[in-house]
Amino acid sequence: MSNPNPQNQFKKGQSGNPKGAPKRDWTWSNLLHGAAEEMGKTGEPMKTIIAQRLVLEAGRGNMQAVKQLMDRMDGSPQAFNDLTSGGEKLDLTSGLTPKQQKNIAAGIADAVKDNLK
């Protein structure tokens, strides 16, 4: 609902919510860090036990564990979405006659229909 009183409108250069969201006294990150620091039954921190288990599972051939281990050690592979155009929009139909474009579209439509059967 708009406020007809210009004195109560937002001031130029001032945030609409200067105090921000209220701070929580907990975060998932803090809870997980705390739990990882707790001692396990062996007297080692849980984070050490978890790391050892991850390595053990990877050694047994658990591919999810292998992926996690590799991602944690080397970082996740970087995703590349644009390999050729340098960010420019590609015109895939340049140099094609309208008849060639129509034939390509018909071929794609036939292939889709065949895969839906």
What is this entry, summarized?
With 117 residues, the protein is an all-alpha fold.
Intertermini distance: 53 Å
Average pLDDT value?
82
Structural class designation? mainly alpha
Overall outline: flat
Count of discrete alpha- or pi-helical segments spanning 4 or more residues: 4
- DSSP strand tally: 0
Largest sheet: none
User: Secondary-structure element sequence?
Assistant: HHHH
From the alpha-carbon coordinates, what is the Rg to the nearest angstrom?
29 Å
Characterise the protein shown here.
The two termini are 53 Å apart. This protein is mainly alpha-helical and 117 residues long. The chain is built from four helices and no strands. It is flat, with a radius of gyration of 29 Å. α2 (46-59) crosses α3 (63-74). It has a domain at 30-76. The mean pLDDT is 82.
List the helices and strands and how they pair.
Blueprint: H1 28-37, H2 46-59, H3 63-74, H4 98-116
Helix pairs in contact: 2-3
Task: List key phrases describing it.
117 residues; mainly alpha
